[in-house]
Amino acid sequence: MSSPRIGVLALQGDVREHVRALTGSGAEACEVRRAAELGSLDGLVLPGGESTTIGRLLRVFDLLDPLRAVVAGGLPVFGSCAGMILLARDVIDGRPDQPLIGGLDVVVRRNAFGRQVESFETDLAVAGVEGPAVHAVFIRAPWVEKAGDGVDVLARVGDRPVAIRQGPLLATSFHPELTGDIRVHRLFVQIVRSELGLKRGRS
Length: 203
Ligand SMILES: NC(=O)CC[C@H](N)C(=O)O
Known about the structure:
Layout: E1 5-9, H1 15-24, E2 28-32, E3 43-46, H2 51-60, H3 64-72, E4 77-80, H4 82-87, E5 88-92, E6 104-109, E7 119-124, E8 134-139, E9 143-147, E10 152-157, E11 160-166, E12 169-172, H5 183-202
Parallel strand pairs: 1-2, 1-3, 3-4, 4-12, 5-6
Antiparallel strand pairs: 6-9, 7-8, 10-11, 11-12
Bound molecules: glutamine (GLN).
EC number: 4.3.3.6, 3.5.1.2
InterPro entries: Class_I_gatase-like, PdxT/SNO, PdxT/SNO_CS
Subunit structure: In the presence of PdxS, forms a dodecamer of heterodimers. Only shows activity in the heterodimer.
């Protein structure tokens, strides 16, 4: 089977790490900066970084509406950390006017784990990821405060969802791209492949 083509939004954040993890998961990965590049993609990753900065750059580069359109059109998207915030329908403790792409029926709390533990690491069981627990790195991470019925929770810290899926959209509060364990990226590539299969079946 040919490799799915997966873009990584490359305005700010840890782009190279995602490209590496996607390539290791059997995808053809490319950096994306312009709306014209979205049309050729089978999937997209929104990296971690700073959601307010990425949001501002989305406006500057006229990417906000094109991204909303591809999400509404069913493109599989994986958002990690800041990427999860961008996919949310609303954010608590965001900056005023912070632009979101939306798509996931969730409200997230930005910088949710608080100052004293802004960054921490823990091992998590993630539904859909086989084998040992995933070592999860949280850096000023959000959590999911409210989720609609269509959202599957794949992992929690305490009772807070930190990995979720809604159809072709996947999001984690943590950074699977930073650990060298590419199983979450493999899960996303699987989602992309099965969406491609569905699309072919329909056409
Ligand atoms: N590591 C991250 O992506 C941090 C997210 C950041 N706190 C934000 O609001 O976007």
